[in-house]
Write a structure and sequence with these properties.
The structure holds 2 protein chains of 2 kinds.
Chain A (H helix, E strand, L loop, with lengths): L7 H7 L12 H19 L1 H24 L14 H7 L5 H10 L3 H20 L1 H7 L4 H34 L5 E2 L5 E2 L1 H30 L5 H20 L28 H28 L5
Antiparallel strand pairs in A: 1-2
Helix pairs in contact in A: 2-8, 3-5, 3-6, 3-8, 4-5, 5-8, 6-8, 6-9, 6-10, 8-9, 8-11, 9-10, 9-11
Chain B lengths: L1 H6 L3 E11 L5 E6 L2 E3 L3 E5 L6 H8 L7 E6 L2 E3 L3 H4 L3 E4 L11 H11 L8 H11 L15 H12 L6 E5 L7 H16 L3 E6 L2 H5 L4 E6 L2 E7 H6 L4 E5 L3 H11 L2 E5 L3 E5 L5 H10 L6 E5 L3 H9 L8
Parallel strand pairs in B: 4-9, 4-10, 7-8, 8-9
Antiparallel strand pairs in B: 1-2, 1-3, 1-5, 5-6, 10-11, 12-14, 12-15, 13-14
């Protein structure tokens, strides 16, 4: 049958002049960017998401004020809690440490929630509204839609982590003395070098969040209820965090998605323990790729029934 | 075949043996062979749950067939979805938009997802589409504040935003008031007048019979009729009804005349008229000395035919 043998070139030439000819080749980069920027706009202009970022931004402010009020005298010996407690002792000496404190505290629950809401909503939300069938009928293309969704999640994670870091930095500088940074290992580096480490820590946490964003995207392709996807991702993260603290499970711990999150403190010592950092980044990359592929396999093979 | 290459295939939609079995084992669409000619207005009829929407979902590449194949504008689906769907406008199972965006932003959203159109012409296209369905004044209003009719019209605007070769409308008048229903009908006529093929599904025959040139009728997942609307009308065999006290004698006369399918009631007997003229039936009856109290020729309405094809409803068949 001749109509089956129509090449895409034939179809393009048969198209009315108003639609852009050769849409597949050079213009497609621009078209993809247009779709991506529209997705970003919708994500960042959505009131719910803006509130989420606002709440996340308030935490470093509250933590800063709270710590200032609790530790009025310089260099107090007993910091609150254990684990990352080393940061607290440093804070009184240098406001830059508020960034590390805020990030490590928010990493437990607040940042994962901020990521989970957008990641879990990504496909499930569209399915719930019914807009998914119209996007696919446009046609947005299933793989293309998934890539745009994940790219938006990565930008979202980056924005959330950087907002927390930036607010913490400003609040820290306002409430505590700022100067050359004394690292956890006892060495002192210049303020500039200290800020570079702040940046590296922030980027490391962005990578950690982007990895759980991929898990959220994958879960999101399995349901029409974004709340379900968001809750499932949060349960997964909390479970992973709990299992990570149980000594009997030490064998599986390195494979947990949350295990390497706090390894960023390697950046606060000299020499920097790069092996740990690379392990962490490798873990994040494996999780991101694996779960993006799961999302892709599911999304491109299943019926859209919403 | 240069002509084919330029005008595309003769059929806007063609399917053969299209079948969809849901995971639960339910056969939603069963061996459907659609043939929707280019330029036609094809009314896709059937009661709720007869498989219309599932068929449409397969045609649009949203659902994958269990077996069989479908072609839209000559391109196999679902493999060709990305290639062909930008020439197909659709409204599937009611409007769906982002409640927190305005009508304008909603159209811009779908437009941005389309890689076959240019961003430069987006503004003009969106304005024109909103204008066409009479929503220009409500463009900046949030979608969640739209009335049902406005939502439906916005969905039609989205389907018309880009130049199309085929428009698929699934129950476009669902939930609309009589004026809205009429507006949709007018719109379908306008679209068809531009040479665009329209595939419109409905569970109400009355809704599409005024605008469609072709109809397909679904029942329990099967396509039980397909053809021109006139062909459906011609399947309506006129029947003669005779009211008489002498039912047995009248039946004999009818049998002698060769009338098929005689059905006797309390005081009336009916039979298919076939090629026999009603006046000769009258003459024969009177000649045989039968008391004829009334004699009428009844052509079943399209509605009766439709119900005959699809069943009376209320009885869930599967």
């Amino acid at each position: 049958m001749s109509n089956v043998e129509l090449t895409s070139a034939d179809l393009t030439s048969a198209r009315p002049a108003t639609s852009v000819a050769g849409a597949e080749s050079p213009g497609s980069v621009r078209a993809n960017l247009r779709f991506f920027s529209n997705e970003l706009r919708i994500t960042f202009f959505r009131r719910r998401n803006q509130l989420l970022l606002l709440v996340a931004a308030l935490f470093p402010l509250l933590i800063g004020i709270g710590l200032k009020a609790a530790a009025p005298h310089g260099g107090g010996g007993n910091g609150p809690g254990s684990g990352s407690a080393a940061f607290f002792n440093q804070l009184a000496g240098n406001g830059v440490f508020l960034t590390f404190i805020a990030l490590s505290l928010l990493l437990i629950l607040v940042l994962p929630v901020v990521v989970a809401v957008v990641a879990g909503d990504s496909i499930a939300g569209e399915a719930g509204y019914g807009t998914l069938r119209y996007l696919l009928a446009v046609p947005a293309g299933r793989t293309r839609l998934l890539i745009v969704k994940y790219a938006t999640i990565v930008v979202w994670c980056t924005a959330a982590v950087f907002i927390v870091a930036a607010v913490a930095l400003v609040v820290g500088a306002a409430l505590f003395p700022v100067g050359p940074v004394t690292l956890l290992s006892g060495d002192t580096v210049s303020l500039g070098a200290g800020l570079v480490r702040v940046l590296l820590v922030t980027l490391y946490i962005c990578a950690a969040m982007a990895a759980i964003g991929a898990i959220g995207l994958a879960i999101s392709t399995f349901t029409e209820h974004s709340i379900g996807a968001i809750a499932a991702l949060m349960i997964l993260i909390v479970t992973s965090e709990v299992v990570d603290t149980i000594p009997q499970f030490a064998v599986v711990a390195p494979y947990l998605p949350t295990h390497w999150w706090n390894s960023f403190d390697a950046l606060l010592r000299t020499p920097v323990d790069t092996t740990t950092l690379w392990h962490g980044l490798l873990s994040f990359a494996v999780y991101a790729v694996l779960f993006f592929l799961i999302a892709w396999a599911r999304f491109t093979s299943s019926d859209v029934t919403s | 075949m240069i002509e084919t290459a330029h005008n595309g295939p003769e059929l806007a939609i063609a399917s053969s043996g299209l079948t969809k079995r849901f995971r639960g084992g339910q056969l939603a669409v069963d061996q459907v062979d659609l043939a929707v000619p280019r330029g036609s207005v094809y009314g896709f009829l059937g009661p709720n749950g007869s498989g219309k929407t599932t068929t449409i979902r397969m045609l649009l590449g949203l659902a994958y067939p269990t077996s069989g194949s479908a072609q839209v504008l000559g391109v196999p689906m679902p493999q060709g979805a990305v290639q062909v769907l930008s020439r197909v406008g659709s409204l599937v199972e009611g409007p769906a938009f982002y409640p927190y965006l305005s009508g304008w932003d909603n159209l811009a959203r779908y437009d941005a997802a389309d890689r076959s159109v240019s961003a430069r012409t987006a503004r003009a296209r969106i304005d024109a589409a909103l204008d066409r369905v009479g929503l220009a004044a409500a463009a900046k209003k949030k979608f969640r504040n739209y009335s049902l009719g406005m939502k439906q019209r916005l969905a039609i605007a989205a389907a018309l935003m880009v130049e199309r070769d085929l428009i698929v409308l699934d129950e476009p008048t669902n939930g609309l008031d009589p004026q809205g229903t009429r507006e949709v009908r007018t719109l379908i006529r306008q679209i068809a007048a531009e040479g665009i093929t329209v595939f419109v599904s409905s569970h109400l025959l009355a809704e599409v019979e005024q605008v469609s040139t072709h109809v397909g009728v679904m029942r329990a997942g099967k396509l039980v009729f397909q053809g021109e609307l006139g062909a459906l009308r011609r399947t309506a065999a006129p029947r003669i009804a005779v009211r008489t006290p002498d039912l047995t004698a009248a039946a004999e006369v009818m049998k002698k005349l060769g009338l098929a399918d005689p059905v006797a009631g309390d005081d009336t007997i009916t039979a298919e008229l076939g090629d026999v003229q009603p006046e000769s039936v009258t003459a024969e009856l009177v000649h045989a000395g039968i008391a004829v109290r009334a004699l009428t020729v009844e052509s079943p309405s399209l509605e009766d035919l439709f119900v005959g094809l699809t069943g009376e409803g209320f009885d869930v068949e599967r």
